[in-house]
Each structure stands twice: as structure tokens, then as C-alpha cells.
Amino acid sequence: MADFLTKREDNYSQWYNDLVIKADLAENSAVRGCMVIKPYGYALWEKIQAQLDKMFKATGHVNAYFPLFIPKSFFSKEADHVEGFAKECAVVTHYRLKNDPDGKGVIVDPDAKLEEELIVRPTSETIIWNTYKNWIQSYRDLPILINQWANVVRWEMRTRLFLRTSEFLWQEGHTAHATKKEAEEETRLIIDLYSDFAQNYMGIPVLKGTKSESEKFAGAIETYAIEALMQDGKALQAGTSHFLGQNFARAFDVQFLDKTSKLEYVWSTSWGVSTRLIGAIIMAHADNNGLVLPPNLAPIQVVIIPIYKGNSELESINSAALEIKAELETKGISVKYDNRDTHKPGYKFAEYELKGVPVRLALGSRDIAGGTIELARRDTLTKEIVPRESIGSRIEDLLKEIQINIFNRALQFRDDNIYRVDTREQFLEQVEKGGFILAHWDGTAETEEKIKQETKATIRVIPLDSPEEEGKCVWSGNPSVRRVVFARAY
Amino acid sequence: MADFLTKREDNYSQWYNDLVIKADLAENSAVRGCMVIKPYGYALWEKIQAQLDKMFKATGHVNAYFPLFIPKSFFSKEADHVEGFAKECAVVTHYRLKNDPDGKGVIVDPDAKLEEELIVRPTSETIIWNTYKNWIQSYRDLPILINQWANVVRWEMRTRLFLRTSEFLWQEGHTAHATKKEAEEETRLIIDLYSDFAQNYMGIPVLKGTKSESEKFAGAIETYAIEALMQDGKALQAGTSHFLGQNFARAFDVQFLDKTSKLEYVWSTSWGVSTRLIGAIIMAHADNNGLVLPPNLAPIQVVIIPIYKGNSELESINSAALEIKAELETKGISVKYDNRDTHKPGYKFAEYELKGVPVRLALGSRDIAGGTIELARRDTLTKEIVPRESIGSRIEDLLKEIQINIFNRALQFRDDNIYRVDTREQFLEQVEKGGFILAHWDGTAETEEKIKQETKATIRVIPLDSPEEEGKCVWSGNPSVRRVVFARAY
Q: Do the Cβ atoms of B68 and A167 come within 8 Å?
């Protein structure tokens, strides 16, 4: 099975595409740029959703749902926002089809033209702030801490499964606050939450920081982001949290009476992560045998495969396997017992390696007689023999070990691939090799743009914890006070 | 608070609208026919989703996600389907906006016209069967048991919150089978599952049956439905499960090799319920004080309200309340403690009555000293005094009691409003009064249509368990072998 995969070292991009398809995560659809998320891929998304949703609710957020469509005029109300989003939108212009007079199929009914075109939401700030206007009169109505799980559409020209698709699934938080300080705190609370999720659930270390003026969200005062490093040395933005100041409140005229009865514009934030995270999980951990899923998000944590000859042998293995399955399930571990008789054990081993299942148990008659079980870890591809009576506790520990191990491996890789670079020549050389490049930058959009044009590298983040340090811009030679992180990115 | 509600007996329709708005479930949006589902309404939807999802998974189904957009040409492939759906669709014709040369906002870029228009899915049979074509070669690939949670759009002319909106949320199951028998069994499995959910979670009795030819799903061989009776005597279709035969497999050319190596078209089903169920819950149980939510789906099952004078008294109540809250939560009961100091207890009582919270506890210093708590049930509006030490077990029992009570009340109402009618005169009289009408029908679409035109009543279901009975059609006088259920419907 893994033979069908392009080797990671031969062609990383092809390896990724092969893996998404062959591990049954997703595929391209008949609609340009839109994907079908297959059951195994969707199960991974459900695990991501469930955990994030829990974390949002634990921090006081609630879910709601706003319309898919946004009136075209709403986009023009926030000047930067329209620049950033209106250019790549799906536009609904009609609301009816009719039979083709030629008798061949259906055509758009020209009599059913909308008075104002509707945009399929690329993000929901405008429709939400138009709604919040009616919900907010006084400081007593604040804060509003709402999240939405939804599909959004951005008409991307070049698409790749999970990483960049015309339609994708995401969550978008939209909060409203009485003070600037509170909104800023919310923005940072969320970027910390995302970082916690990336590190402790996805098993991916991230750099946390703010975006430069040209990379920030269209309509934001400040964008915080977490950036992860993929195995090919390219960066991937894994989540963003925006401090929007009073921009959208002004655009939609949302004012409130504060405690001193003064009329003030509302402060706001927005933040989101998407099905792109599945791409990050693949590219951070997978290998030439397939996916390596973090136990904390794996839809199947343990697979049990019977090794048998003939049906009578299978029957006794079945009962032992179901016993182990039940025992593990009481510990909250998700287990699949695969006793299909249409495939041989070797085929199944390869299949679950491809699908990245963290732990595999092979169960034969001799094992049952001997009171032992063979256990294989997906992350290290190593095996061990475990006494039957301790299988539950061993697997419980092992899932934690694997979670930590794949995080540490990714951390080691990331740390090995952060480069301090001080000259243009070093920069040009390193950018071809990949990795995060810590370099001085003069702080101007012009220099940033030149670097992007000539090297395809962008400023991924201005790290929150980077120390002040006198230096010279790696490109212009002008003075700089701190290093920023450059990389080529997905 | 309840004073703001129109009385149910004065204007049922206005009472419903008032309730949806004032109980903070949903509101109309700036986009015609599309609603904003507010946090409290969405929390109810989340409870519905969680329970149904569990039931789907327990019966072997998995979730996946298919594109929002469907190429126009797909619709023409199944003749009945296009007739049923193409007429009321949102159509995407362009993929870009540009700045208006007049400098005022943005306009649709005429250069960005799609070669083939895309329809925003009104239901996903066509895009899914176009996808299944690539997934199914042999009987080994079957069955496919997939469900999707998604938004869909049907351009309704007259909309009402939850009951009929241009965009709504739903789940749609799409299954593929090797045999007719298996597909038929799946269709019935799901209608039974929906019926179980309606009765045991929503607390609403339903009639189960099949639809007549003219009322069945566009593209189905047979449509099973559950029908509920609302308090105003109108019926509401609460879920449908369709046996699609080989219609979509033929339309999309999906064939498989069966066990005898013969090429066969695949058999299929589809089924769905939507945010409309929230409308059903409201209209089945609510009263002039507000919502009455079934405990099994209520986002808040118990609310605790402190009765106090001054802050020092509040503090001791706080600690008692949090202790009770924690105790109830260990039993899996969801509890809200509302100690806002901006509102008086009386206001809060009315608010949670309006929001339909099943159980309310009022907690004052005297109660704490006396070791008792006053408890109020939303369904009967009665109160009882309970010793502090038995509050946990009492509430656990009470939630079950309330669930049963509201079901029984709805059952009583439904059974009191089923009428056997044998003449056209009786039919005309009864249809004005409402209720389910059991009447003989000659089985022709002509008669059905005439009845609909003259009385606005439609055949809701042909009940599965209705006995054969010789009779004469209530309209045409022609012979009939069984009674069917007529009603005016939402």
C-alpha cells in the first residue's frame, strides 16, 4: 500500500497529495477547487472541532449561526476589508432556474435576477456587525463572545486539498467589548488557546507573534498568528486572532452607552482556524509509510488485527479481541477491531500505517495461549510484547508517550531549522534551503515587498518574545531593533 | 416579560413569532428569508445534533462533507429531481467583484463569469451520486452509510423563522446498497430512528407513514415521513426518509459488480431533518408564559436563582448554590446559576419561564437555614419544597417526569384531535377546526389535488399500521381500501 506513495524525499508535494487521497482523507470534487472530505478525514475534523469547541466554551464563548449570504453593499463599508476579500468571491445573482426552451436541461431564469447581488461569505465580520448593531445598546449588553462553525468560500486560483480550497470549513469567533483593553486581552487569550491546541493536541510546536502591516487581516489593527514549520522547511499559518479596534463598529455604526452614559464605538476581535489544520497535521508528522496521527486527535487510537488460520481459530480470537476492545473503551480509548476476512493481516498492517493509527495490536492464537499481545507503535514503527493483564494500562501510557514523542520530534526539527541570518547573501542561500529565518528588517512595507518579490519569503511573525537587539536590515542595511521571522509559506 | 407575548389563543402565528424573538432563539437577518440563529437557539440545535449524531453512529453511519456548490448540469440528470428543486435555487454566476469605476463601492466583474453556473445545494443527491460513482466498483464497496451536517438553500417565497427559511441547517443521509431489500430496510430503520427521537427527546408523538405520489420527494420511489400535530391543529412534517430505488444510480451511471459478477445499478436512500425541528418543539409544548423545553434537549435543565437582600446574604447563598450546582453537574445535569445583580428575582423567574427551563430553584437565606429548597416545574407551573439532602435525586427524577409529562400531554392532545370523517361535509367542517383527519381516498392524484385546492388540506401520511377497511372516497365517492391522514400543514 505504502508502495503507491510517492517518496517524501523525491517529491514532497506529490507525496502530500498521494497521502491525502490514499489515506482516504479527501479528494477533489466536480466543482473546481472544492473538496469532498471523506469519512476518515471528516472524523479527524470532528475530533479537532470537539476539542476546540470545549476550549471555547470553557473560556465563556457560545456558538451561533449567521447567514451564508452577505449583501454586496456590506463589503464596501470597511475599506480595507473590501480590498482584501471582495476580489475572490462567489456571487449569487439569480434565484431561479427554468426549463431550457430548447428542451435541453435547465437555464438561469433571466426574470429572477436579484436586486442586490449576494456574496457567499468569505468571512462574516460584515454580516455579523450589521446584526450586532441591533443587539448592543449599553455596556450591559457587552461582552458578546460568539463563535460560529461554518463553511466559507474564497475563490482561490490555485487550490490544494485542505491547504487552500475554494470552500473550506472553519470556526470564526466574533467578539464585542466595552473597552480596548478587554478586546486586546481577548485577542491574546485566543492566540494562546490556539497555541495550546496546536502543541498539545496536534503535537505541533508553533511560533507566536504579530503580523506585519501587509500580512495582517483586511480590516484589523493587529493580527496575531501561530506559525508552524512543515517537514519541507516551509511555514504554515495555523491560526489567527485579530484585534479589530473599532473598525467594524464604525463601519456598521455600532455604538453603546458606557458606564458614564457616554456614547462609544464597540471594540472587537475575530479569530479562526480551518480544515487547513488537517494539512498541517499531515505535513508535520507523516512519513513514507503514511500518516502519523497524534493520539489526542486520532479517530482510531488503537486497531486490533486478528492473525488466524481458519474460522474456528478466528472465533476464539474474536472473543479475546472484543474483550480487549471493551476494556480499552472503558478508559475512553477509541478502538477498531478489524476482522474482515477479505484482506490478509499484512495488508491491514500497511493500511493502518497509511492511516496513521497510533497503536496496533496483533492477536493470534499463540499470543492468547501465552497470555501476551504484540503491540506496534506507528510513530517509531517499533514493536513490544505486553502481558495480557497489563495491556490496558500500557496502552493508556503509550498513547501519552506517542503524543509527547511526536511533539518532541517536531520541536527538534523546528528548532534545528531556525536560522539567524545577517546578510543578504546568507538570506538568499538559506531561503532556498527552507526553515524559519530570523533576520533584521527595517520595518518598511517596501523592503518587505522587495524581499517577497525576489525570494518568495514573507514575514511570518514578529515574535512576541523576541528580545530587542540592535542590527541592520538584512535587505536594505537600514537600522533595525529586532529580528523577525521570514519563511516561504503555504 | 410574558406580557410582551401575544396570547396563543388570540393569534397563534403572532404568538409563535413573538416567542422565537423574545426567547432569544432566532431573528430575521438583513438577507431576505435567511435567519440568524442566536446562541440560545443554537444551543438547542447543538443538543438535537449531538443526540441524532449519536444515534446515527450507533447504527453504523459516518459523517463526511460534500461541496456547497452543484454544477447546474447535474440537476438535469434526474428528471423528477430537477422539477422539484431547480425552480427555487440560489445561482452563482460570477466569481469576482471589482471596484465600481464610479468610485462607489464594488460591482460584479463582468469578466469573471463562470462557464457553467453553480447552484447552492438545496439537497445533495446529485453531487453525492456523482462522487459515489468513483467510490463504487464492486459489492465489496457497499454499503456506504454516510451522513452530512450542512447548510442548504431553497429560495422560499414566504418564510417563517425555523419553519421555512431560505437557508437552513440540516443533516442529510445518503446511503448506497447492493440490494433493494437492504435499501428499503435502511429507509425504515431511519424513519424509526426519527420517530424514536421525536417521541423520546422532543417529547412529540408522531404518525409514521408513507407519502402519496404527489407529496413524495422529487426523485424518490417511496417517501416515509413522520408527522406531528401542532397546538393550532396544523400538521408539521418532522422528518423524511426516502427509498430512491436505482434512480440516482441510473442518472449518474453508478454500477457495481455483484457477488455473481453481474453489473447492477446501486440502490439508495436519503433522509433528513432540519432546524425546522426547533419550530416543532416550540409549537408542540409552549404556552402563554413562553417555551416549555423537553428536559432531554433543554440547553439549561435547571436554573438556580438567589433571593437575597444585600451582599452579605448573597455571599452565603452563592456558596450554597454553587454546591448544589456542582452536585447536579456530577449527575450530568446542566445548571445555570444566575446571580446577576442587575435584575430582580421576579424578572428572572419570568425570563426562565419564557426560555422554557424545565426546573427552577429559588434559594433564600431562610431556605438555607431551614434545610429546604423551593423548586418550580415549568411544565405545570407548580412548586414544591424539597429537603436539601434529597435535591439531587429529586431533580434527577423530576427531569424524567417532566419529559414524560410533556410527551403525554402532547399525546393526549394529538389523540383528542384525530377525527374519522366519512362525508365531504364532515371533511369541510373538520378541516376548518384542524387536527388529523382520517378519511377514505380513492388513491388518485386528481382527487388529492382537488381536495388541496378547495380545502388547503394535503395527505400527510398513509399510515404504516392502518388496517384495510372498505370505504368510499370522502371526495369522489369512489371505492377505497384504507383511510389516509389529511391535514392542513406547515
A: yes
Count of residues for chain B? 490
Which among B399, B432, B449 is the end of a domain?
A: B399
Work out the angle at residue A79's Cα, subtended by the Cα atoms of residues A73 and A81, and round it to the nearest 5 degrees: 80
The helix/strand/coil state of A282 is: helix
Same domain, A129 and A267: yes
Same domain, A359 and A452: no
What phi and psi values does residue A256 have, to the nearest 5 degrees? -140, 160
Q: Report which of B486, B262, B282, B287 is spatially closest to residue B380, judged by C-alpha positions.
A: B287
Spell out which residues of chain A touch residue B86, defining contact as CB-CB under 8 Å.
Answer: 97-98, 106
Q: What is the CATH number of the domain that holds B37?
A: 3.30.930.10
Exposed/middle/buried for A246, CB within 10 Å: 0-12, 13-18, 19+?
middle
CA dihedral B63, B65, B71, B74 (to 10 degrees): -10
Give pLDDT tens digits for B383-396: 999 999 999 999 99
Q: Is residue A297 part of a domain?
A: no
Chain B residues whose CB is inside 8 A of the A37 CB are 64-65
For B338, B350, B378, the CA distances from B343, given in Å and listed in that order, are 10, 11, 20
CATH of the domain at B432: 3.30.110.30
Tens digit of each residue's pLDDT (9 = 90 or more) over B113-147: 999 999 999 999 999 999 999 999 999 999 999 99
Residue A3 within any structural domain of the chain: no
User: Do residues B443 and B449 lie in contact, with contact meaning Cβ atoms separated by under 8 Å?
Assistant: no
Residue of B234, B185, B227, B228 lying closest to B210 (CA atoms): B227
CB contact under 8 A, A72 and B37: no
Residue B270 lies in a domain: yes
Domain CATH number, residue B352: 3.40.50.800
Q: In what order do the strands lie in the sheet with A436-440?
A: A62-63, A144-153, A167-177, A267-274, A235-245, A222-229, A207-210, A458-463, A483-487, A436-440, A418-420
One-letter identity of residue A318: N
Q: Is A115 in the same domain as A51?
A: yes
- A225 and A306 fall within a common domain: no
Q: Which of A344, A363, A398 finishes a domain? A: A398
Interface A-B, measured as beta-carbon pairs within 8 A, has a size of: 194
Residue span of the structural domain in which B374 resides: 302-399
In angstroms, the CA B347 to CA B338 distance is 12
The one-letter code for the residue type at B397 is D
| CA–CA distance, B283 with B269 (Å, rounded to integer) | 30
Q: How far apart are CA B487 and CA A32, in angstroms?
A: 45
Cα(A346)–Cα(A256) distance, integer angstroms: 66
Is A65 in contact with B140 (Cβ distance < 8 A)? no
Question: Cell 423520546, residue?
Answer: B200
A280 with A148, same domain?
yes
- Interhelix angle A39-58/A180-200, nearest 10 degrees: 140
Query: What distance in Å separates the CA atoms of residue B151 and residue B203, rounded to the nearest whole number?
Result: 25
pLDDT for A2 beyond 70: no
Q: Is residue B258 located within the same domain as residue B318?
A: no
Nearest to B296 by CA among B25, B9, B71, B44: B44
pLDDT digits (tens, 9 = 90+) for B448-486: 999 999 999 999 999 988 889 999 999 999 999 999 999
Q: Is A49 at the interface with chain B, CB within 8 A?
A: no
DSSP A6: P
Residues A273 and A330 in one domain: no
Share of chain B above pLDDT 90, in %: 91
Inspect the interface and report whether the beta carbons of A105 and B43 lie closer than 8 Å: no
Residue B189 maps to a domain: yes
Phi, psi of B235 (to 5 degrees): -90, 155
Same domain (yes/no): A280, A368: no
Domains in chain A, number = 3
